[in-house]
Amino acid sequence: MAEGFVREHSSVDGSRSQSLDTLVLECPICLEQLRHPKSLPCLHSFCEECLGSYITKELSGKMASASSFSCPVCRKVTEPMNPSEDKESWAGQFPTNNLAVEMIRHLQNTNTLITCKPCEKKGNTNVPAKFWCHKNKSYFCATCKVGHHDLFHEECEPENITEWNISDTIRRQTSAHGCGKHKEKIEYYCEDHQILGCNKCIIVDHRKCEVVTSVDDFRDKLTPSKFDDLFEELRKSADAMETLINDVAEQLQSMTNDQDIALQSLTDLRKKINARFDTIQKELTDKLMASFKKEKENLDISKLKCERLMFSMQNTLTSSKDAALKDDSVGTICLFQRGQAEVESCKELIKELEKSSRSTSLRHEYDPDILAVDTKTSLTMGKIVVHQQQRRLPSTAFRTPLSERQMKMTENFNIKVPSDKEDCFAYGVVLLSGGRIVVGDNANNKVKLFTENGDFHCEVGLSDLPCDLCGIDDNTVAVMLAKVKTICVVAVGDLTLTILSKILIPNITENCLGVTYINTNFVVGTTSSLYSVPKDGGEATQFHTIESKCLHLASNQNNGYVFASINESTPDKVAVTRLSDKSIRDVLKVDTVKGTTGIDVDREGNVYVCGCRSNNVIQMSEDGTNVRELLTSSDGIKSPRAISVYGDKVVITNEYSDQRNFIHMFQLIEMATQK
């Protein structure tokens, strides 16, 4: 059969088969044709050399006793047959992909053009053959078949060789002897372990298993509806990966633009000063490039994970269209198992990226006074500012919006420590990555650092009463000191708190209560007004008058909106005001929420508002049109004061009652998973 095969590039079916062969025979690591292909239990194949290098790199730095690794494509945990051997030899322990070997051999030997024999005798040596006559052992083009063959051999029907699919034949022949461990025909499927095997596999490894069936019997259990559901999940998963890949590309482009702007800023400034800045400029440039490189590597890793999984799922979807699988029980089961593993890996990867995804901007800052004549400004070129914050991932088929989730309490712990002289008044709180919780204790003039499990790490004493807190970036918070009208900037480590600076606001006479950070400036709330304060200090600019005191502020870094919580309990009075560069709008009136206190915004733009006198917490859209009550007194909420949201986690403090010394941890969970 192979001697009559012609690979026609103009054939639609031939092109599809060639494309499918290329996908199947490509190593996901080096992206070249497979060399000495090895198959993992999850059915993904790699060059033996590439797999060995990956395993060595994957396990470098881990304990010598490590006995498994994750698949480079679907990340399924995989164990070698003999973990006690050197890790460099693990790749060779996995079975050879005989199907890939045969297909590669076939592709290397079937590119010769077969020509029509009658045309050759006439002198036309390049006319491709389209038919093969078994009786005459000769090839014919379409014209010669009609004009010569059919006139003399009416009882004989030549075979159309352009419709042969050698790849399908190889798949069927190879899969019939596909046991890579014993080189015997695969005939059984163990449902207990969800693995295919030959006679020896079943006898040696699965004698005690309860359900072992023939491959044909198990194939019959895989109904068309199961495949339809799986393929739909695969399509959604592939779309999700493509969405995330595009998002990473946009983030990388934004970072690249930031880098270019910062470098240009450095260059422009360098032209205005003399050569004494060469060394300083080099130091800053190196820091900028190092920061860019570090974050680029993180984004590249995320993109690579998504690409590998997406290409694998696309390959599975392409393979599912292969009609030959209808007669191939083993291939069908393998396809189904591979698809299941890839869908689960897609869901896990999305959850991982939701937790770790962050937005990074790079900026060069310098004091413009450096260009002035006869000033006392030190001759520096400023600094490179790396600003990071949690970033919202684009929507995918597997991600339930936070606006559709329910609150579940996960922790409730005491924040009063032995050094406290008074019961706590936690008037401000910020939840950061890694479960770090920074609490402002108004009663004891302190800022404290806890974990989300309630472990106390450290504290810093303050000169005045701390009120509201806000995050500046993932490792820095600002504390509003009420009476001295000062913003205290604090660096937050894993175990430490360090005061970096104190920003005095000289022209405000009222007590300063609420604070947030947006667009490199602070917004401060008092008993009657809202002010804008430069990030490096200076006089405040009043831009809005309010009817009652503003205890808390929150901001959405994505669109620049600032939300002011107005502590009011009178019906129909303003409870929340939204501010932007272009407008000021009241978005919530006193109704369900009374005595408005804490406020924050999640990664999707949902606004969370605490009602101190109504003993509840609501969630609303940014324009206030969609409001729902998340927590009430029946959930144990009493006089909530401050709130902070990070990802799907929420922390809430209490102002009065017996809960003053406690804070509550919640998680926004999907309703189907609530227990």
Mind explaining what this structure looks like?
- The structure is a single chain.
- The protein is an alpha+beta fold and 675 residues long.
- It has 4 domains: 2-180, Herpes Virus-1 (2-Layer Sandwich); 181-221, no CATH class; 227-390; 411-673, Neuraminidase.
- It is built from 12 helices and 36 strands.
- The strands form 11 sheets. The protein has a 4-stranded antiparallel β-sheet with strand order 13-36-35-34, with no helix packed on it. A 4-stranded antiparallel β-sheet has the order 14-15-16-17, with no helix packed on it. It has a 4-stranded antiparallel β-sheet with strand order 18-19-20-21, with no helix packed on it.
- It starts with 11 loop residues before the first helix and ends in a 6-residue tail after the last strand.
List keywords for this structure.
single chain; alpha+beta; 4 domains; four-stranded antiparallel sheet; elongated; disordered N terminus
Care to give the gist of this entry?
The chain has 12 helices and 36 strands. With 675 residues, the protein is α+β, with helices and mostly antiparallel strands.
